């Protein structure tokens, strides 16, 4: 299948060819036709599948086909959970609309709102936003969503995970009832389906990879290791393998910082990316990682979400996630665009239960190895880390009323930032991760 056969306009085809894409990815092949036909779409796709173009291209096509108004009300809203993802989606919107007469803007927390408000005031067709800043600007009367024709909810599962349910519901009320809705999510929990039911109108469902399964191109491996030896083992793996681009997942911001310090001492070019880092530091770390001046990026789950890092050969779970779906997200960062990837998990005794849960979710047993000199501690307890020890938790606030599904851990003091936030604080929540 070609992009031409999808019925996209010449201006879009020109931008696509400038990007160097020759064939639409599976999610693009499946999602673009129903979006162009005006349907609501519920798409199962994670980062790396080309999902952004999957909704951006048809959205731009629809907007450019319809007559423009002089003052340009916001006609399309793309809501994303994190600043990084918002910036990446916006970069895509800009590139794909290069040859169209459409204007766009991005808004997110953590930076001065004035330039954002000024851009919106001049008139834009497409707005990419994180929920907190969007609601802030709207409540100050600096933008209106009353003319939105197309609403995209990107990474809906992460939106709920970050406690944005109330904010999403609020945003929905600011838009006209009659509009086209597109929802993208990597996983489909009960909560996500419930949210989809509330937003989408008889949606066409499309899927890029089977739900909650890991991609075949990824080699997965577990090293059983004593907790105290994890740092030495990860340094050995990276150094011996001479790995140049490794994404490492850590549960906490503090743990990520500590690991980076030790890696730097060992001569590895590493940087951390998490919610306590300023926007500038995060952008710099990501740029360094992409350019090769940084070999190892140590990230927390939320900070890593949506990062556009093509062709990532290695992902290492320094700690495996207590939320099994996060494992699927994490390892989805490898094996992109047809390249092979390797996902390694360092598992200590207290993570045994989490490993079992992950294997249950992905429906396979992961091959286990033990590295000589880094054996697991035979006396260590296999009891899982207890509540209060920085395990990530499904936020209460993201659960629709009546949901009885279990929460999976302790308090939310780790990388979840302001999950237990109060309503008044919620505005700036996206600036804290
Ligand atoms: P996404 O899942 O939207 O984050 O996209 C993942 C990566 O795939 C990005 O680097 C895109 O630029 C790239 N990409 C998107 N569509 C295509 C395509 N049709 N052919 C090749 N690369 C693509």
Automatic annotation (TrEMBL):
Enzyme category, top tier: hydrolase
One Gene Ontology term, aspect cellular component: cytosol
InterPro entries recorded: DEAD/DEAH_box_helicase_dom (IPR011545), DEAD/DEAH_RhlB (IPR044742), DEAD_box_RNA_helicase (IPR050079), Helicase_ATP-bd (IPR014001), Helicase_C-like (IPR001650), P-loop_NTPase (IPR027417), RNA-helicase_DEAD-box_CS (IPR000629), RNA_helicase_DEAD_Q_motif (IPR014014)
Start and end residues of each DEAD-box RNA helicase Q domain: 1-29
Motif residue range(s): Q motif: 1-29
GO biological process: response to temperature stimulus; ribosome assembly
Location of the Helicase C-terminal domain: 229-382
CDD domains named in the record: DEADc (cd00268), SF2_C_DEAD (cd18787)
GO molecular function, one term: hydrolase activity
Low complexity: compositionally biased ranges: 408-419
PANTHER family listed in its UniProt record: ATP-DEPENDENT RNA HELICASE RHLE, ATP-DEPENDENT RNA HELICASE RHLE-RELATED
UniProt record similarity statement: Belongs to the DEAD box helicase family.
Protein name: DEAD-box ATP-dependent RNA helicase RhpA
Protein's organism: Olleya namhaensis
